[in-house]
Structure formats: C-alpha cells, structure tokens
Amino acid sequence: MPIEIPTDLTPELVPFAWLLGTWEGNGFMGYGDAEQRAFRQRVTFEQTGLPFVIYRARTTLLNEEGEPQREATYEQGFWELARPREDGDIGPGMLPPDPVPVLKSAEDVEQLRNASGGFDISVTIAQPGGVAELYLGQIKGPRVDLSTDAVIRARGAKEYQSGTRLYGLVNNHLMWAWDMAAQGRELATHASAELTRVDDHK
Questions:
Q1: 190 among the known binding-site residues?
Q2: pLDDT for 55 beyond 80
Q3: Scanning 69, 130, 140, 149, which has its CA 20 to 30 A from the CA of 7?
Q4: CATH H-level, domain 11-198: superfamily
C-alpha cells in the first residue's frame, strides 16, 4: 500500500509520513529476572503543522486470557529531524517559530539526507518515574533505528543506563523492538510489539 502524504504536512515531516496516525496491538515485555508479560499498546504519532511529530504511547497489561488487566505505563515525546537550529525555529523556551518553515520545500529537506540515504533524527521520550531519554538515529524509508545519546534520571529513579529502539513498517503493520541496559545489566531484549493502524488521522 502506498504511503499517503497529507497535503498540509510541513516538508520537514515528509520522512515521518508513514508513522502518522494511531496504532494498536499486542506485545511482550520482560527484562532480567522479571517475568515476561503480555501487553496491549496504543501509540499515536501526531503532527500539528510544526516541524516535529508528537509521540504518545499507552501500555496496558493483559491477563492470561489476553484481556486487559491494569494500566502499566505511559510515554510521550517528540520526533524530529536532527539539524542545526536557526533563528526561525522554535525556542529557546517558549519563543515561537517564524510563520514560514525554515525548510520550505522537499528540495530543502533532501539536502539533509545522510551518507546512507536516510535522515538523521532525534527523539526525546519522557517516562513516569523520573526518566527521560534522548535518542539519536536515522529514519530511512519505513524503518527507524535509535540509540540513546543521553538518559536523565531524577534522584530516586530506578537505574537505567541506555537503550536502543527499532521501528519498521512490515506488511502495513508497525513492528517495534526495545533493548535496554538497566539494573546493572548489559543491553538486552526488553519489549517488542506488532501494531495495526486504527486511525488514519494525520
């Protein structure tokens, strides 16, 4: 199925067009000595006309019958192309961007392709419990590869050192996998899921 690009999409977000919308499906999580658990997840990638994608994920634990048992956790953050910021961009603080996007056309965006033919991106994700992650990586067609560049933990937060995340569109399903290094352990499998698009809103 071809990827539909919304007519109102700012040029800077065209590489993310295949992600936009709401996805839902099931997966499994576990780590170290923790019991592996099934979960259901609802993920939304939303654009508002600004040059970043708003990310939200809600995860619910499932019982042995596959029915919702209780809420597990939430995540939210921002996905954007990694590039030097200019006077016309958002910030610092609440300073608004210029009305005209810094990257005005597809040709401007094409200039940002990296040596492997993808686009460098940065992703910030905040989690409850006082943990925030900054991921750097690339989006290349319908695939995203991310590795943490920095992890911020509040005093008293659980130990978490680093993570990698992989997202890909396979047969119109969003597949993702998350490896993490935490609790004194090396980087290892943590969670994965297969999601189906349930809402095409862009």
A1: yes
A2: yes
A3: 140
A4: Calycin beta-barrel core domain (2.40.128.20)
